[in-house]
Design goal:
Layout: E1 12-18, E2 27-34, E3 42-52, H1 54-61, E4 87-88, E5 92-100, E6 112-115, E7 145-149, E8 153-155, H2 163-167, H3 171-183, E9 191-194, H4 200-212, E10 215-220, H5 225-231, E11 235-238, H6 245-252, E12 260-263, H7 270-278, E13 289-292, H8 305-310, E14 314-317, H9 323-334, E15 342-347, H10 351-359, E16 368-372, H11 377-381
Parallel strand pairs: 9-10, 9-12, 10-11, 12-13, 13-14, 15-16
Antiparallel strand pairs: 1-2, 1-4, 3-5, 3-7, 3-16, 5-6, 6-8
Helix pairs in contact: 3-4, 6-7
């Protein structure tokens, strides 16, 4: 059956196409890319905004080795590479349904939605052990149109949320953050150290801790303290001063150990993060828990295994999340319980500038960058342009 639509859909579209592993020169802006058509169970979305994630850069540069640290590769947990070229990146997509495939109600036409970015390996709702995503194993939102699974394009009709801020609430950051917390069994009243707190996952963690009743302590640059405190951080520790770090943490926790660390940094700091949890085991009510979903400070950490097993530290590696967690986040978004942290918007044709800006971002950077198709810029991007940031 042909796709059903009430909209005029062009045969070709503009897209930023990744042509291979490497630098930003591997991203080519093309204006004659065939427009996708929705298959059975899919909807075609006219893209209005797509949040940029650091995983876009890391996948492009091949920084996801799982065997040899020197490999130039990306996600292969299913046994083979799913990032093939050419590929359109961009995971956190917002837009409007303009066509529906076989098996999808025409009532979806015109709906605005937010994409659950995962390419789930099966229908299980509480486990996802072969993570992949739109923009990696299938084409993503750095384009004017994208075809996606209808049950993962969630209708969001909140009138107070414009499209670019809604994209900043995208699943890549928020679902990863929630999975970090649920994996580590974070409970109300627990003290949680959030490293890399100013990025998309970090700002999501701060908000989600508060929703769960936990107390987040942020590690970031000192000049971002005011914004992070307003977002919900109990206190902000300066990442540029790691001297006597455990003592400084205890100063802000009134002498209590950290219950769990949500780590996006890794590298040499890992040992110091563990120190904040094992300083006084008599005051603990649960195991020390280290939840890891990033390594911005280095992919290699040296840790004494005796510290891990004698102190019974539990370590959780987190990549993406589950269908159940995605549905919970959508409920919170619809209820207005999550606040988008949008730094700035860039035109799709200016993605090279956005990538360079992200890599060399200034101290005022907080939250997410959103990419808007050029044809949508005046309505959905211009109000959030870089000159208005900060």
């Amino acid at each position: 059956m042909a796709a059903r639509t009430d909209f005029d859909i062009p045969a070709q579209m503009s897209a930023m196409v990744l042509t291979g592993h490497g630098g930003i020169d591997k991203l080519e802006y093309q204006t004659t890319v065939p427009t996708p058509r929705p298959g059975p169970g899919e909807v075609l979305v006219k893209v209005t905004a797509t949040a940029k994630n650091n995983t876009d850069r890391k996948a492009r540069e091949g920084l996801y080795p799982t065997q040899d640290k020197n490999d130039v590769t990306s996600f292969q947990m299913g046994g083979k590479a799913t990032l093939t070229f050419p590929r359109i990146q961009g995971a956190d997509v917002v837009g409007r349904v303009v066509a529906v495939g076989d098996g999808v109600s025409s009532e979806r036409l015109g709906q605005r939605g937010l994409l659950d970015f995962n390419l789930y390996p099966d229908a299980r709702r509480t486990i996802n052990l072969v993570p992949d995503y739109y923009g990696h194993g299938a084409n993503g939102g750095y384009a004017e149109y994208i075809a996606v699974s209808s049950d993962q394009f969630h209708h969001i009709d909140n009138t107070e949320l414009a499209d670019a801020p809604l994209a900043a609430l995208g699943m890549c950051s928020y679902q990863t953050a929630l999975h970090m917390l649920t994996s580590a069994r974070v409970k109300a009243g627990e003290r949680i150290l959030v490293t890399g707190a100013s990025g998309g996952v970090g700002t999501a963690l701060i908000q989600l801790c508060r929703i769960l009743g936990a107390i987040p302590y942020a590690l970031s640059q000192a000049d971002k303290a005011k914004a992070l405190l307003a977002l919900g951080a109990e206190a902000v520790l300066d990442r540029n001063n790691m001297q006597n770090f455990t003592d400084r943490v205890q100063d802000v926790t009134d002498g209590h150990p950290i219950d769990a660390v949500m780590d996006l940094v890794g590298g040499e700091a890992t040992d110091q993060f563990i120190d904040t949890m094992i300083v006084d085991m008599h005051r603990r009510n649960d195991n020390p828990r280290l939840s890891i979903a990033g390594a911005s400070g280095g992919n290699i950490s040296e840790v004494l295994w005796t510290r891990i097993y004698l102190y019974q530290v539990q370590i959780f590696g987190v990549s993406h999340g589950t269908r159940e967690e995605a549905d919970q986040l959508i409920d919170w978004i619809r209820a207005g319980e999550l606040k988008p942290v949008l730094h700035a918007a860039f035109k799709l044709s200016d993605l090279h500038h956005a990538e360079d800006y992200f890599m060399h971002r200034a101290s005022n950077y907080l939250g997410k960058i959103v990419i808007v198709p050029d044809a949508q810029w005046s309505e959905h991007g211009a109000p959030y342009a870089l000159e208005n940031a900060g």
